[in-house]
Design goal:
Thrombin, subunit H, Spore Coat Polysaccharide Biosynthesis Protein SpsA, Chain A, 23 strands, 761 residues, alpha+beta
Amino acid sequence: MKLFLKRHMSTITIISAVVYMAWRLLRTIPYEYGTFSTVFGLILFIVEFLGILEMIVHFRQLSHEKLPKPVKADPKDYPDVDVFISTYNEPTELLYKTINGCLNMDYPDKSKVHIYLCDDGHRDEMGVLAKQMGVTHLVRDTHEFAKAGNLNYALSVTHSPYIVTFDADMIPKHDFLTACIPYFLGEEEIGFLQTPQSFYNPDLFQYNLYSESRVPNEQDYFYRDVQVMRNASNTVIFGGTNTILSRKALEDVGGFYTGVITEDFATGMMIENKGYQCYAISDSHACGMAPEDLKSLVKQRQRWARGCIQTGRKVNLFGLKGLSFQQKISYLTSITYWYSPIKRMIYILSPILYAVFDLIVVKCTLGEVLLFWLPMYLLNHYTLNCLSGNIRNTRITNIYETALVPALFLPVLKESLGISQKKFEVTEKDSKEKLKSSDLGYSFKTSITLLVLLALDGIGWVRCLHLLLTLAMPSYLLILFWLSVNLYYLLMSVFFIYGRRKHREFERFRANIGCLVVYDNKLLRTHTYDISENGISLIFDFPEYIPPEEEITIRLATDRNETEWSGKVANVMQIGSKWKYGISMQKITEPNKRQMMQIVYDRDPTLPRTMENGLSTMDDLALNIEYRKKSKKNFTSKKLPLAELDHTVTTKDGRKLVLETFDYKSLILWSPSKEGILQKLSFSEEGVVFECSLQEKISKHEASYQVDNLAELVGSAVFRTLLNTWITDCRQDKAQEKNYKKQIDATLNRYEVFDELQYLN
């Protein structure tokens, strides 16, 4: 959407919101209905006012663009850079990938890139890893101020003019430095440049709600839209990772801010308070691991919520002289955003109080709602969709916020009352943990609040419907709508909390990469279907015989990286007219492992960047209900390709048998003439002889046979041609049969309607 259209849409929506709030204040507070109704009505109004304030600031930011421009510079002018990788208790395997990504970053003079593993856990294995990877291991004697103290120590023993910060799980792409450092090479004095926090795995909202192919990562909207639009007001939020900071700016504010649990939020605010221009860009140059279990996500969001509220109180936001009023309001809404669990609770309770307990909290008529609320609601929804580039809508936002109500309500309340969390808690990020069975006890405990609200909402809905039908009062339609919307958010939130079992330790990425497969002096050229750090899947046009018990050599090559390792066939399945072979990694050397990691992770995330068109509330509910009621299936993992043939063959003794399927080691034959099963048989075609012995009886006239002369067959080019012909013929026969059935169905459909009068006439 063009900038002037964004501004006009924002203006119209803001005007409608102001009109709505004026109506709410002057006409709808239920003063005459008692103390409780008045107090709760005022609380609801305040909550709505905060929401509208956030919306106004948000839409104004989204409709004003200020994009930085990288400066073209001579390669010799690129400055020294210190790269800080923060760690406390993360797994070695996770840090290995991050350090490997840092080592593979491009730079005109790589001797100017200094990589530091900032280990605040003081672990011996980190020293071993740093030595193995050739980076500097930094540890400090004391551990005060958690991550901020760790980074400040690194700052005190390094000297480059620019600092890059990475969390332990964030793997930079090869172009991170060459794409980002040029922004600092112009005349403008930039405090920091924030790049998006992208993720290679689906976040918990995507995965638990079966939406990993339907909606973007929850953080995409913030980093790719909101942050970029904050450039204009110079209120970009320092996200703590995937960031380049000016050492001068950090030194001017006394280093990374200490004494709060979100040091990044506070540090960025202090840098902008000193007058430095800070920018965010939407292009992703690093990719990390989103929390994959509910406990880790809750711990992360509690730290973010409490930390932002804590920071706002400690820094005395409105006392910061270097920030303009506009900047202060922008940061204020960043803090009030974390009151969303309290706001959502109020929104959910309001119709319940009326429908279940006969307590009025909003005094209005249906006509007034249609006149004042509906235009504001529709404009808000439409404008958010347009301004966000279809990354986010109000429905998705409300699901996220409702789901976190039980986890954040009390922590936010405590922090607001000055009961602060002092300890910095690291978000758990261990790929092995996700394979453990889900913690139903924790999920139930977390969901109790939502289940109670769900029950009350349901009671209110039934009662309201009964009153609507008996009293025929239109105002009950409004309450029914409100209850129905909240019912949807509560149901989706419960689905989210109870989650979905993880089945893989490592993420797979769709990727088409050239590949060579070498075994038994044979060489096959193909390409990958998907890849992960412990294996790949390959696509073949022909059902190749790759011995599942033997190790094979895999060679992968991209424009930048090459690797070679040994693997075994883990499974084979047919996809349309092709065969997909899953190959599990068995052995790999250290140099090849580093190359493999780059091939896997040096890429843009393959998850959606926009919402799927046409998504509705019914789609969400139907999808989640359907998947959750499906029983678990036991999948058999075949390690050889199974080809359907349905080809008639003649045995050496003259019997006519149908060759139903073939998978190299065995084949299935059945007798159309109902003849008995033979212990041994042979048949030939085009000079290719099949020698078979009985493996298993399936029925009186059908059996599975072992192919005794397999070695002879797989070495024959004539056999390969023959098998391909059989497969092609079978496909054509099935296609003809399918078309014939369609024609029959179409013919029968013409006579489905029976006209009785025409028949009688």
